[in-house]
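Input record (one chain):
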Amino acid sequence: MLKRSPHLLPRPSPLATWLLLLLLALLAPLPATALQVRVATYNIENGTGTTDSPKFAALSNTLYRINADIICFQELQSSTFDNWQTLADGLGYDYTATSTLGPFAGSHYTGYYSRYPIVASTNITSPPDTKELTRSPFRVTIQIPGAKNPLVLWNMHHKASDATVDKFRRSVEAYRIIQDINAYCAANPTHTEYIFAGDLNADCGKLSGTTPTWFNEPPASTQYPQTWVLGSDIPFPLRYAVFPTQCYANAGQGLVVLDPTHEGYPSRYYTRPASENRLDYVFLSPALHNSSLGAPQSEVYYSATDAGGGLPKRGSPLPAGASTNSSDHLPIIVDIHMADATPAGVTTHGVPIAWYQSFGLTPPAGKTWNDLDTLPSASGTPYWQQYYAGLNPTDPTALFMFQDITLDTGQTLGLEWFGGTHGPATPYTIQATTNLINGTWTTITTVPRQNGAHTWTNALPSDQILYYRLWIPLP
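The corresponding structure, as predicted from the sequence alone:
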């Protein structure tokens, strides 16, 4: 509500003009929308199963429950691709993408579900004449409606097992992924909101004493695949530990690992219940991790500990065994906040972002430009109303209100109000009606804007009751 004038009119006679002064008539405020996106990573263990299998049903229920906008999958299989697509259709994911088959991937692929358009996808490969990657790292670019920049994701399923040669092969795979992240960020410096996620097949909390920090040369072993070929550009020493957290920390503009836990168990990090190992990870770029719009929130989803708390989810808690019926891994869910499409755009109330910036205003921590609209300006009036009134939002004395109301003996009405030019150029409009309940408002005149006091006088008929308002039309 806008402040009303303290001036009172004397009680009029029945034939006198009755003045009801409404300071502002605007459309109802539009709801603010936050650009929050939920991302999940999930190794579903050898595909979806048949559509009539308990695994397929449990997987469907799990994905419905976690309600992610984007899902990074590992261990998709070509034999159940059609079922995976059927599952996407049933859950309302309009966009999907799958990787190519890596040189030593067996039958395992990676892929994505998305509620938003996937505008580009890239399979990351080794240089020509090399054969190093077990499964193909898979990058996608997704356009989030209303976001300033796209969301970029890298999805990886690293080489498994714990022999020294397996760790070396993981370090080579990581080097190739980091190369791609670095090259992408250099070519797209404004794409600062990116994620690296997947099954990385190493528990950073359970490093054995024999884990090397660096490899000074390829370890001698008979366990390399016969056709495995290392690129001559791989630099030594090659970092491994702490894998994967420190290994990926400096990729691109940086990657910050999240530490999600189970609902109700703040020190339980594992994502593979059978071994209680933490094998699945989500890393965020600094722009996402340190977002002023809100800190990321994450959770390892496990139906056995789902009591209806933790991050918001859809529907009711699932049966305890749903997670283990779906896969031998648990999904990780992460809520992030994307930067608004600014400064070129406008807020949901139609306020240009440039207007805020011209007064040195930015959203408070955890808030968006849309949220700023309804917060109080220096005068206590919401910012969006100050914009349409044309007032300086940093001036505590700037109030769109009547300063004086006069009704002279000769039936001359005088109105004076405070306005300004710090907003739309449309003039102020004075309207009148004979009936507040169902009467039609008729425009009497318009008054050009200026900074400071505005005055209007009019000779009124003596035989009619009129109600007046000062009106600012919204676009």
